[in-house]
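Look over this entry.
=====
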Amino acid sequence: MKILVNGACGRMGQEVVTLVENSAGFEIAAKVDKTGGTDVFEQLDQYRGEVDVIVDFSHHSCTEALLDYAVRRGLPTVVATTGQTDEEKELIAQAAKKIPVFHSANMSLGVALLVDLAVKTAAVMPDADIEIVETHHNRKLDAPSGTALMIANAIKKVRTLAEFKFGRTGNAKREKTEIGIHAVRRGNIVGIHEVLVSTDSQTITLKHEAHSRTLFAEGALSAAEFISDKRPGLYDMNSIVHAED
């Protein structure tokens, strides 16, 4: 499978390139990054060769150019960036009507399982308090993380009255409808996500910890394999988790 890596010179882009180069059945079709460099195209339109799937780890501001290129060439695309605006999310939805698009706030299969378990727990314990705590390295720009929001939005499907509370200040008591979302930034943490589900008598703690950024590259390649033969549509990690259901 020939992979075009967009954002190839960034941290995650480099992880994907290294993994592709060391994985049987995959090869680099092209590397694209605005910084340029040896064997790197500065813009997507500069590459017109063969490619099976695009894996994008650039920046959400590149969403429009990415999808325009992908749709014109009819290429399945893995959008692995986070922080999309509402307008950019709509571009993804529109592109998915024409090509298969895989978009997830977190490319880890383990996180997808965490989300699934969090939703089931919230449904079984409807009166429990729910708090989400995410911890990342001190260079991460968006807070809360896209993954924390993904978890919260998934829980909201079974807690329809839930309201998100981003951190806490002041002297107000916790409301029963709240889902607390808290962001911690320190050191070189790859990513930790915890979901705390508590009643007055017990707590269930669901936790996923990323030990290496390689796991996100592995997830991106799994996503590339998954959508390579799919019909147009919008897919995510949940699609893989429930592929055999």
Summary: The chain has a mean pLDDT of 94.
